[in-house]
Amino acid sequence: MKENLKEQIASLIIKKALELGASQAGICSMADLEEAPSYKLAPLLPSLEINDDEAEENYNNPGFSLKLSPEAKSVLVISYAHPENQPQLDWWLDDINPPGNRILIDINRNLAAWIRETLAIETKPLPYFVGKGGVFLKDAAMLAGLGTIGKNNLLVTPKYGPRVRLRAMLLNEAIPSTGPRDYQPCKNCSAPCMDVCPEMAFEKAVYHPEDYGLDNLPGATGNYDRSRCNTRMLADIKAATTEYLETDPATPVKVIKYCRGCEITCPAAEII
Questions:
Q1: What is the structure's pLDDT at 166?
Q2: I want to staple 218 with a disulfide (CB 3.0 to 4.6 A). Which of 73, 86, 132, 224 is the partner?
């Protein structure tokens, strides 16, 4: 396939993703993603104390593999904006996928069908968790030009800051990458994200270049302690409440509301 035709296809795919409801869309190469920091770092990270539902994120489990489909040539990443005034998009209701994630799944499924039927390109929509066959979404989104990894260890986008949710699919065709972009929102920022964390997950450097052979570490400089963040997530699970929602006021549901402190306090956004 000629390069200019591939660029046209990339534009068509992104346009269709936005039409279907995605807030952003971008493409990166599979080869670049496999060289991204998370793929090199994950197998070296210490294990976490995690619950059974999150066990797939324990990269040190025997038999865990970060390898993806050998047929995949590109990764398509989509985002869905998650404004502060719509917290319910991220709520787990009786262990059911959050509404925002279900929206992303629908967009991904419809987009994959359109790509196969219209462009004759084979696709594979991916699960969220890496251990279930997904990709490191923040790395993929950064390489696809959606944003950059900030000091809060989140993807930070120019329009929405870190208030986005992500999903991806594989494409069995080498489509030109749409990123990365030169975007440095943390450069002159006072980093309120580091002060708001209830578990002080950004208190000190816990990863050092000489220990891992990488300069690009969690929290940009290695000062993101994922074990402390995980402690907060486990606490949020234990603090789940039973509520009656407007969508079904007659039926009580268990609601898990995960901490979004470092996400909400980030000032890097045109739309809050």
A1: 98
A2: 224
CA 13 to chain centre: 20
Q: Identify each DSSP E strand in 21-147 by its residue range.
A: 24-29, 74-81, 92-93, 123-125
C-alpha to C-alpha distance for 259 and 3, rounded to whole angstroms: 44
Q: 126 with 62: CB under 8 angstroms?
A: no
Residue-level pLDDT at 257: 95
Q: What is the pLDDT of residues 40-97, one digit of tens each?
A: 888 777 665 544 444 445 555 544 556 778 899 999 999 999 999 999 999 999 888 8
Residue 2 has pLDDT above 90, yes or no: no
Q: Residue 32 has which token pair?
A: 């670049």
Cβ atoms of 194 and 220 within 8 Å: the answer is no
Which burial class, exposed, middle or buried, applies to 111 when counting CB atoms under 10 A from its CB (0-12, 13-18, 19+)? buried
State how far the Cα of 231 lies from the Cα of 49, in Å rounded to an integer. 8
Q: Where are the beta strands (DSSP E) in the chain?
A: 24-29, 74-81, 92-93, 123-125, 148-149, 155-156, 164-171, 241-244, 252-256
| 180: preceding bond cis by omega (within 30 degrees) | yes
Find the helix packing angle between 3-19 and 99-119, rounded to 10°: 140
Q: Over the Cα atoms of the chain, what is R_g?
A: 19
Q: Assess whether pLDDT exceeds 80 at residue 131.
A: no
SS3 content of the chain, % helix, strand, coil (to 5): 35, 15, 50
Q: Which amino acid is at 28?
A: C
Q: What are phi and psi of 109, to 5 degrees?
A: -65, -45
Nearest alpha-carbon partner for 34 in 72, 78, 77: 72
